[in-house]
Write a structure and sequence with these properties.
Elements (H helix, E strand, L loop, with lengths): L18 H17 L5 H22 L5 H23 L5 H11 L6 H17 L9 H18 L4 H19 L2 H4 L7 H16 L10 H29 L5 H17 L2 H5 L3 H20 L12 H11 L3
Helix pairs in contact: 1-2, 1-3, 2-3, 2-4, 3-14, 4-14, 5-10, 6-7, 6-9, 7-10, 10-11, 10-13, 11-13
Length: about 325
Amino acid sequence: MATLLASCQPVSNDSPSSIGDALVSYNELFTIIKSKKALNVEELISLVQEWRKLKTAVSATLESDTTAHADARHISIGDSIKFQMSRLIDSRTWSYSDYLAVVRGLNDIEMDSVSQKLVASVHLFYHDAGTAAPLKGSAKEVIGKYNRLLDGSLAKGIRTKHDAIDFLRNEDVAFRSFLLHLSTLSTGNIPLDDITKKTGEVMHGIISLSADEYPVFGKSEVVILLAMRNNRRLLQNAEACLESLHRLHRVDNGQATAYLWMILQPWISLDGFAYALMDEEQMRTMEKLAEMTPKALDKLEESDLPLDADGLPALLIKTFILGYE
């Protein structure tokens, strides 16, 4: 990793011993950031790490201060650092791989030991579910089977943990089967609205199991379970889109918009918590998506989605960094 403060006087790593020292250290960091014209992703990560560390130390020192003046200076310098950080991010073009590097380097969400065990258990569950053979049949037949799965679950109801886990296992098979027919289904000739609506109803039923008088799931348990389900589906969907698009010679306007949305959805939807739930295999999938996405976007220039896809990595980096400050 590049040295953060090369050619600049480094900010002291010692915790500030007084309010005056704290504000001086914070202002020194602002001066260093302001002096930079551009930086690479390694330098950006190091700079933000230094910013966060110093911000924490300064805040701790200022907790003992009761004067509005010191607090106002602290806020003012912090706002100035944000502005300069935003300028630096906007000063160059970033890639989706750069964004993933930022996530790896700066995601500070940590799980307690109980949550870590649950996350590992859910990964094992989905790894096992992923070994089941997909549903057979045409696109229309697969959608029919998917609908019947949802209808059956809604008719029976989701009342126990076993009901929820059994549904998620069968849903995983149905969803993977759906993705095998993506090129056909993306034309819009086979309605999918019922699947979307019914899936939402089943998810509501699973969530309600954590809100009953005698809950089947703990609230954090159901949040982690469904967030990991969402991670898996978004990655599978985007990967299938990219592979399907590679095989297609032409896509019409409607298909292009559908593909673009599905390819970009992981980048738009996944936050720090979602990334904290991923295992290395999923992060490697994200890296694969990062490599394949730019070429796919070139092929989807005719889409109607009003989004600056080329500028999205910079926006993602800015949101990830400044959203935490």
